[in-house]
Amino acid sequence: MPKMKTHRGAAKRFRVTGTGKIMRSKAFKSHILEKKSQKRKRNYRHETEIASSDKKVVARQLGLR
């Protein structure tokens, strides 16, 4: 059986931590930033864990399971 190929679009958007969590970056940071508060923009910088409902699909795309 051939090797599983990584979904390249998913590989660019997600990363896996050492403990196995799948992290994603936050949305809404690309444009129309003048009306957003500094606190709100600052919070967009941090990564967050993906939703539990998406874990199975994304893990398969990344070739984890």
What characteristics describe this protein?
single chain; 65 residues; 3 strands; alpha+beta; 3 helices; three-stranded antiparallel β-sheet
Summarize the structure in words:
The chain is an alpha+beta fold. Strands 1-2-3 form a three-stranded antiparallel sheet. The longest helix has 7 residues. The protein starts with 7 loop residues before the first helix and ends with a helix. The model has no long low-confidence stretch (mean pLDDT 96).
Short description, anyone?
It is built from three helices and three strands. It has helices at 8-13, 38-44, 55-61, and strands spanning 14-16, 22-24, 48-49.
Structural class: alpha+beta
- Spatial extent as radius of gyration: 15 Å
What is the mean pLDDT?
96
- Topology as a string of helices (H) and strands (E): HEEHEH
Low-confidence stretches: none
Count of alpha/pi helices: 3
Biggest sheet details: 3 strands, antiparallel
The shape, in one word, is elongated
Task: Report strand %.
Answer: 5-15%
Strand order in the largest sheet:
1-2-3
Helix content: 25-40%
Beta strand count: 3
N-to-C span: 15 Å
Question: Topology, pairings included?
Answer:
Elements: H1 8-13, E1 14-16, E2 22-24, H2 38-44, E3 48-49, H3 55-61
Antiparallel strand pairs: 1-2, 2-3
